[in-house]
Amino acid sequence: MTISQQDTYELNNGVKMPVIGFGVYKIPEEQMEATIGTALEAGYRHFDTAAFYENERALGDALKKTDVSREELFITTKVWNDDLGYEETLKAFETSLERLQMDYLDLYLIHWPIEGKYTESWKALEKLYKEGRVRAIGVSNFHSQHLEEVLSFATVKPMVDQLEYHPQLAQKEMRAFCDEHEIQLEAWAPLKRGAFFDDPVIRELAEKYGKTPAQIVLRWDVQTGVSTIPKSVTPERIQQNINIFDFELTKEDMERLDTLDTHERLGKDPDNFSFDD
């Protein structure tokens, strides 16, 4: 399965999304410029943020200071739970766009499926998409029942579902559901903050391929057809995380990694979550 750093996944509307991106969750404002500069130099062109991260402006500032053109970039942000609803989402979009200092977004996502609110937000995303304000729209942390509700009334099919995804949470049912409905799966927390790097299978494969545990996991991501957005502020790791295109995991080794699936989460379960605690 030959994949290159420049390769993309084609979304169901024809828009092409990079197979690997760069997450900016919890990157402090004062570190953003140097971190983004390092990421761009390493070859990242997809940057994933969210209103909730409170660093959209810092990301926009950092990108403005580079010589990489807007057309070369793929920028994702997300509407937070407090801004769900039709008019609220439209307003939140304008706020995010202003913070990012951009004229359009490449991908806009509903961050969480807050019951009773996300359907109206989806209608707002459709409006933004039809007006050409965003090139692709999708969701984050949506399970099949949430997506089925959206699909029951949508005039524009979701293009992306961003889920927690790593070998210990392989999301096989959601992968099958998304494949069936031509929705691109994207991985957040793909490295689970290194929580399983000491696993014997990961360590053995890292030694076998001469790669880091993170590189083994990220290669597994892209070989399963999932877009992935690792995050780091360490220059060496930023470079290592994108250096996954000069080797290929065998079918047998992919299957060994599949056996690590224990359904263990780092974040909240979309089927049972609350932000009140």
Automatic annotation (TrEMBL):
<protein>
    <submittedName>
        <fullName>Glyoxal reductase</fullName>
    </submittedName>
</protein>
<feature type="domain" description="NADP-dependent oxidoreductase">
    <location>
        <begin position="26"/>
        <end position="260"/>
    </location>
</feature>
<dbReference type="InterPro" id="IPR018170">
    <property type="entry name" value="Aldo/ket_reductase_CS"/>
</dbReference>
<comment type="similarity">
    <text>Belongs to the aldo/keto reductase family.</text>
</comment>
<dbReference type="InterPro" id="IPR036812">
    <property type="entry name" value="NAD(P)_OxRdtase_dom_sf"/>
</dbReference>
<dbReference type="InterPro" id="IPR020471">
    <property type="entry name" value="AKR"/>
</dbReference>
<feature type="active site" description="Proton donor">
    <location>
        <position position="53"/>
    </location>
</feature>
<keyword id="KW-0560">Oxidoreductase</keyword>
<keyword id="KW-0521">NADP</keyword>
<dbReference type="InterPro" id="IPR023210">
    <property type="entry name" value="NADP_OxRdtase_dom"/>
</dbReference>
<feature type="binding site">
    <location>
        <position position="111"/>
    </location>
    <ligand>
        <name>substrate</name>
    </ligand>
</feature>
<dbReference type="GO" id="GO:0016616">
    <property type="term" value="F:oxidoreductase activity, acting on the CH-OH group of donors, NAD or NADP as acceptor"/>
</dbReference>
<feature type="site" description="Lowers pKa of active site Tyr">
    <location>
        <position position="78"/>
    </location>
</feature>
<dbReference type="Pfam" id="PF00248">
    <property type="entry name" value="Aldo_ket_red"/>
</dbReference>
